[in-house]
Specification:
This protein is α+β, with helices and mostly antiparallel strands. It has helices at residues 23-26, 53-63, 68-71, 74-83, 89-110, and strands spanning 8-16, 29-37, 43-48.
């Protein structure tokens, strides 16, 4: 089991999958979770509820290492749109944005 420092936080959000996806029969939504270092804003790890291991692994490679504090979410969403062309692309981007918004709200509430 991987361990994370006490300076990391986990946020997850969900978005509705398109009906034409086979995965939509099993899961109505896709969840995208981010483990973020709260001081640096760097995404240290991610999780996604996509069905195939290849899709989860590829998306993780795209997300991990991105700095939310200096690069924001728009650059990450553009990277996902450019590199990930599964039917779930739009739902993943919506979930990413929602996860980022939850994280930024938490930072503001905690005065970090």
């Amino acid at each position: 089991m991987r361990t994370y420092s006490d300076d990391t936080v986990y946020f997850i959000s969900y978005a509705k999958l398109p009906g034409e996806m086979p995965a939509a029969n099993l899961h109505k939504v896709v969840g995208v979770g981010l483990i973020i270092h709260k001081d640096t804003g760097i995404i240290e790890d991610s999780s996604c509820t996509l069905i195939t291991e290849e899709a989860r692994s590829f998306l993780k490679q795209v997300l991990v290492g991105h700095n939310l504090h200096t690069e924001g979410i728009d650059a990450l969403i553009e990277k996902v749109k450019y590199r990930f062309h599964g039917l779930s692309q739009k739902a993943i981007c919506v979930a990413l944005k929602a996860t980022y918004d939850r994280y930024m709200t938490w930072r503001n509430e905690m005065n970090i």
